[in-house]
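Working notes for the structural subgroup meeting. M.R. asked for a predicted model of this chain before we commit to crystallization trials. I am recording the input and output together here so anyone reviewing the notebook later can reproduce the run.

Input as submitted:
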Amino acid sequence: MIRPLAFAALAATLAAPAAAADSATSGWQFEVVPYVWLPTIGGTFRGDAAGGGSTDFEIKPGSYLKGFESGIAVTGEVRKGRVFVYSDLMYLRLGSDKSTVIGVDPGLVLDTSFTLRMTMWSAVGGYTVATGSWGRVDAFAGARLAGTEFDGSFDLSLPLAGTGRSTTSFSGSEAIWNGIIGTKGRIQLGRNWFLPFYADIGTGDSDFTYQLAGGIGYQTGWLGVSLGWRALVMNQPADEPVDRLTLGGPTLAFNMNF
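Returned structure, recorded in token form:
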């Protein structure tokens, strides 16, 4: 009789923190997290797009920030007990107008302009599979969109010689949809410090895609801040001009809880 009672007492003791956490978070909760992500954008062009073989490319933040026009990056979450919906939106618009003189006499003038719009949006629903004073682990499933739209022109003229202008324009767009599953959450380090984490995998328009993120943060009351690293990889099908697209770089986030 004593042994069953001891096991029952031990089970109740272990379950108490989780039950307390559930009762403390059974109401509606809202979180909004504006953030800054400065990824290095890299990839590999397939042979057909590069004249045979393959060509790697890499664009660092110092290059594309010179043409920054507008952008937004924010995540949002609505939670009721253990059930939640979560969304992540990043929109970036880059533009450039540049005039270059080639040669001295008579002097060719090359005017270039471009506009690039990039959208990354994900929406998922999920369930908290484990929670306690140590932190929280969520599981989720949903979809992610990676969309790009660009247009530009090259304008070559010889003004001193009185010749005409030669203009070449280009434009294009692509929307990549993928279904994703994954996990996210945070590990508490004492009362205020925490380790946020995120991981997903998926497929769809991409052969395979995954995203990883992690960092360290500090929370006081309804406001917190975290520094971290985030990486997104998309492996594209054989009929796409880009074989592999990668984005990876540091993040700075401000989380607000209500």
